[in-house]
Design goal:
Structural class: mainly alpha
Radius of gyration: 22 Å
Number of helices: 10
Strand content: under 5%
Distance between the termini: 79 Å
Helix content: 55-70%
Shape: globular
Largest sheet: none
Number of strands: 0
């Protein structure tokens, strides 16, 4: 009977019953090295990529599987979200992508250079959003969970389970942003004007609700998912505006930047 490579206990089967060490160990290869780096640095394994595919195709299966107790097949909502955000942030950092410049270019693309005007305050806002990008993204999670709770109370889910729904949804939005930022950086193009991105986010939320929540009137479920996205955006904008007001009140020297 072979001994475990890690604890030297006798082992029957493919894994050590004492420490979990695999007995199917092969010579090191570039594939092993890549898998080790991605797993230790990002926490990425095969189930992460399976989660991405299944979230696009049938998100309800992923969501219901995870909240029902299956922790093996799919990456958890919180982990999935933070991996996606980390990939986006590292991508922008590695290629020197200025997120504030991307926001500025997006606004100019949507309104046109003649209509789109900037002042010191808008530049300050873009810089703050860029510097606190991850915080702004995370704050949208509980807001969307609360909005989902308002529309889907009959599902009898806990707030944390609605948070899982929000984490999965926001993780996919982060991956779409990754694609959008990449296309802008390398080709100077956009996936679409701003209203198209907002519409896509709303439709994706509708698809998530349609797939995740078991209700008789499926198209009404889809509509409520779209409304969740719209209400979440409204609550988020109100929260941001309130934070700006409080910040300006406590920093009166910045009030002058409101002038064009």
């Amino acid at each position: 009977m072979p001994a475990c490579y890690n604890c030297n206990r006798p082992v029957e089967g493919n894994f050590c019953s004492n420490c979990g060490q695999s007995m199917q160990v092969k010579r090191l290869s570039f594939k092993n090295l890549f898998h080790d780096v991605q797993n230790k640095l990002f926490g990425i394994d095969n189930k992460y990529f399976r989660t991405i595919v299944d979230l696009f195709v049938h998100p309800g299966v992923v969501f219901r599987s995870y909240i029902s107790g299956n922790r093996v097949k799919y990456t958890g909502g919180a982990g999935f979200f933070f991996i996606c955000i980390t990939i986006l942030v590292l991508h922008m950092s590695f290629f020197g992508i200025d997120f504030a410049a991307f926001i500025d270019a997006t606004g100019a693309n949507a309104l046109g250079d003649e209509v789109y005007q900037k002042n010191d305050f808008s530049i300050w806002m873009q810089r703050k959003i860029s510097q606190n990008f991850r915080i702004f993204n995370f704050l949208q999670i509980p807001i969307m969970a609360f909005s989902s709770l308002l529309f889907f109370k009959k599902q009898r889910l806990t707030f944390l389970e609605f948070m899982t729904f929000s984490f999965y949804y926001s993780g996919l939005i982060a991956l779409v942003s990754f694609l959008d930022v990449s296309i802008y950086h390398f080709f100077g193009l956009f996936l679409g004007v701003e209203w198209m991105k907002i519409a896509f986010s709303a439709l994706l939320a509708g698809w998530f609700a349609y797939s995740c929540f078991d209700e008789k009137r499926k198209w009404w479920t889809f509509t409520k998912g779209v409304l969740v996205s719209m209400l979440s955006t409204f609550f988020f904008m109100m929260a941001v505006m309130l934070a700006i007001v409080v910040y300006l009140i406590t920093n009166p020297e910045l009030v002058k930047t409101l002038k064009p």
